[in-house]
Amino acid sequence: MKMRFDILTLFPGMFSSPLQESILGKAIEKGLLQIRTINIRDYSQDKHQVVDDTPYGGGQGMVMKVEPIARAIESAKSQNPSARIIYLTPQGKPLNQDLARRLSTQLHLILLCGRYEGVDERVRELFIDEEISIGDYVLTGGELAAMVLIDAVSRFIPGVLGSDRSAEEDSFFNSLLEYPQYTRPSDFRGSCVPEVLLSGNHSAISEWRRKEALRRTSLRRPDLLTKANLSEEDRKLLKEIQHGNSIGHRGLPNTD
Ligand code: 4FV
């Protein structure tokens, strides 16, 4: 299944290298992912190719004009009328793993990147299917948000992550934070890898990892615990954790 992203932007050059490197670059080579940038300025019929103007009612900054965006969207949609149009904006619904997974079921997404104070409201009324935010802060443009969305969504496309990997195992998988990870050397300046991970005892290892994921989540993101579907075993582990919370996974005082 190939997934296609059309990106409407005033700065197509921003997408050249980030999306060509590493996993996403390979996914494009493997034909699992197709990314096309569309320069909104090419759809301005103004002799100076103006794409923004002052806000009606006064106020600071500039607003992106509706006409060039309308023409750019209609051109992108002309090739696939069923494509969903997403506007990246701080006023959108928060992007999270569940939303990324849902978007990955779409074959074709058109991403609109705003600049300046944003787009004329009629763009939203007439064209936008979904508004998404990557976080409660203000960027200079929607381009970086579009890249974050493409990265998070593409990881769900079969074959994008190595053959043995699936995004279903990640952090936030059933909304817990990931457990601590270690690799060689087993002793770094006296800081040793937890014995259980060297034991080869897979059930003990998976219990340790489950407990550490629960510990880290309960300490750093207790809000996620309310959404997690915890088993009886999890609740037992959580009790142990909350009981001995002063003790970290190394038996050392918790720094989390
Ligand atoms: C943003 C975000 C974001 C707002 C004004 C672009 C900027 C400028 N997009 N999640 N946070 N966009 O800050 O998605 O037009």
What key attributes describe this structure?
alpha/beta; 17% strand; 35% helix; 9 helices; 5-stranded parallel sheet; 256 residues; binds ligand 4FV
Written description of the protein model:
The structure is a single chain. By secondary structure, this protein is an alpha/beta fold. Helix content is 35%, strand content 17%. It contains nine helices and nine strands. The strands form three sheets. The chain has a five-stranded parallel sheet with strand order 2-1-6-5-7, with helices on both faces. A hairpin with a 2-residue loop joins strand 8 and strand 9. Helix 2 (66-79) packs parallel to helix 4 (121-127), helix 3 packs across helix 5 and helix 7 packs across helix 9. The radius of gyration is 23 Å and the shape is elongated. The relative contact order is 0.12. It binds ligand 4FV.
N-to-C CA distance: 41 Å
The kinds of small molecule bound in this structure are: ligand 4FV
Radius of gyration: 23 Å
Secondary structure: number of strands:
9
Residue stretches low in confidence (pLDDT < 50, at least 5 long) are none
Number of H- or I-type helical stretches: 9
Mean pLDDT: 91
